[in-house]
Design brief:
Number of helices: 4
Shape: globular
CATH superfamily: Pseudouridine synthase
Helix content: 10-25%
Number of strands: 10
Radius of gyration: 17 Å
Largest sheet: 8 strands, mixed
CATH class: Alpha Beta
CATH architecture: 2-Layer Sandwich
């Protein structure tokens, strides 16, 4: 019906026009009979994580599950939670960021806040703080491309090591690693409730102890 995968940072979810490297979609094709589940080159894919983001992703492996999960993502019925470490601190320990996003005018690889953009809502609360960093628990209400990354750049507290979004380079982390992890996902499928959760990666602890 579906599989839950813990995607490592550095791995693309599906092929792109500019790359033919190995992707999470290729892993699904190799291990499950999903050649007719979804559209070509995105078989079994109903949501994405950025290359630099790690964590949980749900992948339907039959058409009924695909159609139901795709519809539930569209209707925002899926609960997705992230942990992130941001540079510096935020004005409030918790809050809701409700700011629309557009393609960046200066860099087409990025998103940025813009009044005529698509609605984007991110809720957060502080777990812990140091002099340099803040560890956050994040509820992703909408799932726009680069949403969390763009929202926290706008608040002048970019995700640690996310140099595309204005963060300083952290020498201990490689360029395809930022401090953003999808750690919890909850959904209902065919009248059964599912909840999956994982621990934060070791490098989160290392960063917070720096």
């Amino acid at each position: 019906m579906f599989v839950i995968l813990n995607k490592p940072h550095g791995l693309l979810v599906h092929p792109t026009d500019s790359s033919d490297e190995y992707t999470l979609r290729d892993f699904l094709i190799e291990n499950f009979n999903i050649s007719d589940v979804g559209e070509y080159k995105r078989e079994g894919i109903v949501h994405r994580l950025d290359r630099v983001t790690s964590g949980l992703i749900v992948c339907p492996i039959n058409t009924d599950a695909f159609n139901q999960l795709q519809e539930d993502f569209r209707k925002r019925k899926i609960i997705k939670k992230y942990k992130a470490i941001v540079q510096g601190s935020l004005r409030s320990k918790s809050g809701e960021i409700n700011l629309p996003l557009i393609h960046s005018q200066n860099n087409r690889r990025k998103r940025e806040v813009g009044k005529n953009g698509r609605d984007a809502i991110t809720k957060y609360k502080t777990i812990s703080m140091t002099d340099s960093y803040t560890l956050l628990d994040i509820d992703l209400i909408t799932g726009r491309n680069h949403q969390i990354r763009a929202h926290f750049e706008y608040l002048k507290a970019p995700i640690v090591n996310d140099t595309l979004y204005g963060a300083k380079k952290v020498s201990e982390l490689n360029q395809n690693t930022i401090c953003l992890q999808s750690y919890n996902i909850e959904f209902k499928l065919f009248d059964k409730d599912y909840k999956f959760s994982i621990n934060e990666p070791d490098y989160f602890t290392s960063i917070m102890n720096m």
